[in-house]
Specification:
heterodimer, A: about 200 residues, alpha+beta, Glutaredoxin, 2 domains, about 45% helix, about 20% strand, B: about 180 residues, seven-stranded mixed beta sheet, 7 strands, globular
Chain lengths: ~200, ~180
């Protein structure tokens, strides 16, 4: 009897192990579905943002579906990034008829890594004021520290799908969302000119 | 085009703010004024038509020509980079299995192979049209609220309901009921 019980226990452990393994496999498979954006030729991947203008959470990449898009990422404390946003706003105004769209994402970028801002509400208040002060029409956004269970069903966290190592990283994607330009702005006319050229090619 | 864009933006609230899909349709989603630009767009937007197996059956086909005659058709706009769009595919397939006319509309810009692959991966065997690049750009301008976007037309091809954001089956069934009712 003891032998039978031991065998059943071992069988139970084996089956439990199989269940856990299968569960891990499914999880890994799910994560692999989100390919990391590495640069030109990749597609802008969808993620959830919080918009400083409306306070709403949604997918900005999805909201711009079918439209050429500038995506700018910067550090919350980087004054240079504000200058970039003003330049991007000028591009938006220039190419309004072509439905050029843009959005900005701010976070903490240090040591070659992007991390979401700890004080989300405080950041949104500051960014809403900045947007108004500079007359920006584009969404100025942050990524939430936590996704809701509902959001997790469809979206991966931003940091899992993008590798942003430097503040003032700007991407240009065509209407089919294929990225045709990635650059780091440095305030020079040369970098802005390169972005402007990419925009013209991407419209 | 701008009035159309603005009116479509209104539809977002009708769908996206619905925590639990209602059994009745939000009023604005079926407001004829909000759908004013779509008859022309359905005639103008075109691309390569794919059958349920992902095989190209025709090129340069306007969306309007892909509808079912005499009964409602669902046009489900989607793109590879839109996770909720992909997540909706099994629901659209289930509706298709139940006899509802469903046409997927891909905004991936002429990427027929990529669209067919994704449809297959998500179990979508209903017809699909991959918009050509000019049509994709026109659709992009029209979809002020972006993707996902679902348009339901009646048996004569008249747009009756427009829904932005990810929707569940009860809402789609309410939209189909609205499309079956007299205008």
């Amino acid at each position: 009897m003891t032998r039978i019980m031991n065998t059943l226990q071992l069988l139970g452990l084996f089956l439990a192990g199989l269940t856990v393994t299968a569960g891990l496999g499914a999880n890994v498979g799910c994560k692999q579905a989100h390919e990391k954006v590495k640069g030109v030729g990749d597609t802008l991947q969808a993620f959830i943002i919080r918009d400083a203008g409306s306070g709403e959470r949604y997918c900005q990449v999805c909201a711009y579906g079918g439209r050429p898009t500038i995506f700018a990422v910067g550090d919350m404390d980087d004054a240079g990034f504000v200058q970039d946003l003003e330049k991007i706003q000028a591009l938006l105004d220039e190419h309004k008829e072509a439905e050029l769209s843009a959005f900005a994402l701010l976070g903490k970028i240090s040591g070659g890594h992007f991390t979401p801002l700890a004080d989300e509400d405080g950041a949104l208040t500051k960014l809403a004021a900045l947007r108004k002060e500079k007359g920006l029409t584009m969404p100025v956004t942050i990524v939430p520290n936590q996704l809701t269970d509902k959001e997790k069903k469809d979206y991966a966290p931003f940091t899992e799908i993008y590798e942003i190592g430097k503040s003032r990283t700007v991407m240009m994607a065509k209407a089919n969302n294929q990225i045709i330009y990635v650059g780091t702005m440095d305030g020079s006319e040369a970098t802005y000119a390169a972005l402007s050229e990419a925009v013209k090619k991407g419209l | 085009m701008r009035p159309l864009a603005l009116t479509l933006a209104l539809l977002v609230g009708a769908c996206a703010k619905t925590a639990e899909p209602p059994a009745t349709l939000p009023a604005r989603a079926a407001d004829p004024a909000t759908l004013a630009g779509w008859p022309a767009l359905l005639a103008e937007l075109q691309g390569q038509a794919l059958d349920g197996a992902g095989k190209v059956t025709a090129a340069g086909v306007p969306l309007f020509d892909l509808r079912a005659k005499g009964r409602p058709t669902i046009y489900a706009f989607w793109a590879s980079y839109c996770p909720p769009c992909l997540a909706e595919m099994p629901m659209f397939q289930a509706l298709h299995d139940d006899g509802v006319a469903v046409v997927g509309v891909s905004l991936d810009g002429d990427d027929v192979a990529g669209s067919a692959k994704l449809m297959a991966e998500h179990g979508a065997r209903y017809p699909n049209v991959v918009l050509d690049t000019p049509s994709m750009k026109r659709a992009g301008k029209a979809l002020a609220a972006g993707l996902p976007f679902t348009l339901v037309v009646d048996g004569q091809g008249a747009p009756r309901v427009g829904l932005s954001a990810k929707c569940e089956r009860p809402l789609l069934e309410a939209a189909l009921a609205a499309a079956r009712a007299p205008p």
